Amino acid sequence: MPTWKTRVKTHFDAAHKLRDYNGKCANLHGHRWEIEVVFEQDFLDPATKMTVDFKVIKRLLEPVLPDHRYLNEVYSEENPTAEFIAKEMYEGIEAAMRMANLDSRIRLTEVTIWESPECCITYSE
């Protein structure tokens, strides 16, 4: 059966500091965080012959992104590492999909977060 993977990449700007970390990242600093989400489905919309529309995905992402925020306050109970943020984004996007009543056959498969152009982490379930 054919499968389509839809990828959307965007960014947000936010600051954080890492607790219990021995290095420069223990100090307050900011990033332009890049986020890429991947959805998978094995069908096309019969009318449009499209997978999930890119603009639908962008609407799902907007409220989940902590743009221009201090991540230690957003995630006060956790250490806001790239790993933690990727998992939070994944869970937030899944919740947004449910609230938007997106077709349940459209599956979120992974969220990748870049802390810098060279360094990223990918979360999937």
Question: Could you explain the architecture of this structure?
Answer:
With 125 residues, this protein is of the alpha+beta class. The chain has a single domain (4-123), classed as 6-pyruvoyl tetrahydropterin synthase/QueD (Tetrahydropterin Synthase, Chain A, 2-Layer Sandwich). The protein is built from 3 helices and 5 strands, in the order E-E-H-E-H-H-E-E. The chain has helices at residues 54-61, 71-74, 82-99, and strands at 4-16, 29-41, 69-70, 107-116, 119-123. It has a 5-stranded mixed β-sheet with strand order 3-1-2-4-5. Strand 4 (107-116) and strand 5 form a beta hairpin. The longest helix is centred in the C-terminal third of the chain and has 18 residues, at 82-99. The protein is elongated and about 55 Å long. The two termini are 22 Å apart.
Give a concise summary:
The protein is of the alpha+beta class.
Strand order of the largest sheet: 3-1-2-4-5
Give a count of the beta strands, DSSP E runs of length 2 or more: 5
Question: What can be said about the biggest beta sheet?
Answer: 5 strands, mixed
Count of alpha/pi helices: 3
CATH topology descriptor: Tetrahydropterin Synthase, Chain A
CA-based shape: elongated
**Shape-level CATH architecture:** 2-Layer Sandwich
- Note the beta-strand portion: 25-35%
Radius of gyration: 16 Å
Fraction of residues in helix: 10-25%
Number of domains: 1
